Automatic annotation (TrEMBL):
The keyword Repeat does not apply. GO terms for molecular function: pyridoxal phosphate binding; sphinganine-1-phosphate aldolase activity. Its main location: endoplasmic reticulum. Its EC number is 4.1.2.27. The keyword Endoplasmic reticulum applies. Gene3D superfamilies: 6.10.140.2150, Aspartate Aminotransferase, domain 1, Type I PLP-dependent aspartate aminotransferase-like (Major domain). It comes from Coprinopsis marcescibilis (Agaric fungus). The lineage of its organism: Eukaryota, Fungi, Dikarya, Basidiomycota, Agaricomycotina. This is sphinganine-1-phosphate aldolase. The modification N6-(pyridoxal phosphate)lysine is found at residue 368. GO terms for biological process: carboxylic acid metabolic process; sphingolipid catabolic process. One of its GO terms (cellular component) is endoplasmic reticulum membrane.
Length: 568
């Protein structure tokens, strides 16, 4: 039996006859306990070494060093912020910033009518519509701001005819709830058909799917599915997943909800695709899921899904392809004759769907380029066995056997009817045509930036509908370009790391592309000639990563923003 090095005093005591006789048996037990304690100690050390080794291997020495640095500096900053003198200053600044956020969102003043309690008597439809008119005009007609098309994403179709179709479907099925398929059989059928149509678009053979309330729910549910699959099939209790830095925040959200460790790996600065070598190094026996986007939100590029598919097959793990944004654009690039690029080696689309054998699930947002009503998305799996890990079943609930596919219990059947109606109304030809006009518009924007705005560069080689641009000119801050675009009425997205601005082209942007290009050229000139060094985009996206205090303060402001959403 191995005696641990730290038990010497114990064996000395054991040598005396008295001890041998009286306390011997007791101490023998204690000695055994001691060994057990040491064993436990080495076990714990071993576990943590393995964890540290895997962490280092996944993220690399440099990133881990940076993480440690950030952790320590944020700790120090937090200490400094606790000093009464600094705290006062920071609190004053923060208070002002929070008030700014609130004032931008919440209408104030004695003229604003507020409805803070139920009316005694119910109101008429005329009164309700009038009150809505009033609210719209009180808020400076802001509700109509999207109609001029000067925005990135947000509203994907907005056509009057389509709106009529959605409202008709909604009108008809407004009380329906797919939780009761026996009461609303048509809704059940429509949901199954929407899923089937999407599976076909993404070339699934024996696929299965569900509808959710949006891209985020699709992603969060897929993360849950892989967690439960890995626990049941592989016995993994400390799951980890690997995502590209360009993946949507919904993956982090899902991992945070489900208690999964995330390795976020940087993308190649030129191609904007995740580095496959790093993905391979980050895989360990606890890995449950790889993620790739087609296309990603920040810069509209696609990851090397074929490469990820090979890794997923080799290590027998899941691969989720996020086509939330790609939705009804990427499956139509090939039939539109645009997947081969522009004929000059640019804008090519590589394989991304279930035809790649390692792809195990795909999320596709009907409420983006599917033009369906907001609150709908489709989550597809390679097979029904995998989908079953998404379900929640409680056979012994007091209220009866409870089974639901996703997070929600009751769901709006009207949205399913609206989605089904939109898909029928547009059809393959309609989606093909939208894909063509939207993607060609995005390519005009990217081409123009490349050929005639020398201060800017396009991030990667985006094959579909999103174009992001950064600055390669030392005197042009691209976030200031974004601010200058805001002054010209554009609602674009600012990106961090690297600083960039993006536009997701929609049906509404197609007719205003010339205006966009003219404004962009002007905005670059303005940012170059009169750099202000500040502005909304600079303040928000510039601060986020660049200083130790950044994330903490931005986090606090973001919380204040969410709070002010609920100020009546
Ligand atoms: C929009 C988007 C999502 C999330 O979708 P929501 O519908 O906003 O929840 C996920 N991934 C990508 C790439 C997206 O663009």
């Amino acid at each position: 039996m191995a005696v641990p090095a730290n038990s010497k005093p114990l064996s000395l005591i054991l040598a005396t006859p008295y001890v041998k006789e009286v306390l011997g048996p007791l101490l023998a037990i204690l000695a055994k306990l001691d060994i057990a304690k040491s064993a436990l100690f080495y076990y714990v050390v071993g576990i943590y070494s393995l964890k540290a080794y895997r962490h280092l291997r996944a993220r690399g020495v440099v990133t881990t060093g940076k993480e440690v640095y950030t952790y320590v500096s944020q700790f120090v900053i937090r200490l400094i912020l606790k000093l009464p003198s600094t705290r006062k200053k920071v609190e004053a600044q923060m208070g002002k910033a929070k008030l700014d956020v609130e004032n931008k969102l919440v209408p104030k003043g004695p003229d604003v009518t507020r409805h803070l309690a139920l009316p005694d008597e119910g109101k008429s439809i005329e009164w309700i519509l009038e009150e809505m008119d009033k609210m719209d005009s009180e808020l400076n007609g802001k509700t109509g701001v999207w109609k001029d098309g000067k925005l990135s994403g947000a509203v994907y179709h907005g056509g009057v005819d389509l709106q009529k179709i959605i409202v008709a479907a909604y009108d008809r099925y407004c009380v329906s709830n797919p939780l009761h398929p026996d009461v609303f059989p048509a809704i059940r059928k429509m949901e199954a058909e929407i899923v089937a149509m999407c599976l076909k678009l993404y070339h699934a053979q024996d696929g299965a799917g569900v509808m959710t309330s949006g891209g985020t729910e699709s992603i969060v549910m897929s993360v849950k599915t892989y967690r439960d699959w890995a626990r049941k099939v592989k016995g993994i209790t400390e799951p980890e997943m690997i995502i590209p830095a360009s993946a949507h925040a919904a993956f982090d959200k899902g991992a945070a909800y489900m208690g999964i460790k995330v390795h976020t790996l940087p993308v190649d600065p030129y191609t904007r695709k995740v580095d496959l070598k790093r993905v391979r190094r980050a895989i360990n026996p606890n890995t449950i899921l790889l993620v790739g986007s087609c296309i990603n939100f920040p810069d509209g590029n696609q990851d090397d899904i074929a490469g990820l598919s090979e890794l997923a097959l080799k290590y027998k793990i899941g691969l989720h392809v996020d086509c939330c944004l790609g939705s009804f654009i990427v499956p139509f690039l090939e039939p539109a004759g645009l997947s081969g690029g522009d004929g000059k080696g640019k804008y090519k689309l590589a394989p991304f769907d279930f035809r790649l054998p390692g792809v195990t699930s795909i999320s596709c947002d009907t409420h983006k380029y599917g033009f369906a009503p907001k609150g709908t998305s489709v989550l597809m799996y390679r097979n029904a066995e995998l989908r079953a890990h998404q379900y929640y079943v409680n056979p012994s609930w007091t209220g009866g056997v409870y089974a639901s596919p996703g997070l929600a219990g009751s769901r709006p059947g009207a949205l399913i009817a609206g989605t089904w109606a939109v898909m029928q109304a547009i059809g393959s030809k309609g989606y093909l045509e939208s894909c063509r006009s939207i993607v060609l518009t995005a390519r005009i924007i990217a081409d123009t930036i490349r050929s005639s705005i020398p201060e800017l560069y396009v991030l990667g080689d985006p094959p579909a509908s999103v174009v992001a641009f950064g600055s390669k000119h030392p005197n042009v801050n691209v976030l200031e370009v974004g601010d200058a675009m805001s002054k010209r009425g554009w609602h674009l997205n600012g990106l961090a790391d690297p600083a960039a601005v993006h536009i997701a082209v929609t049906r509404l942007t197609v007719p205003v592309v010339d205006q966009f290009i003219a404004d962009l050229k002007d905005a670059v000139k303005e940012a170059k000639l009169a750099p202000s060094g500040e502005g909304t985009m600079v303040a928000l996206y510039g601060l986020g990563n660049s200083s130790a205090v950044g994330p903490e303060m931005v986090g606090e402001l973001a919380t204040a923003f969410l709070d002010s959403l609920y100020k009546a």
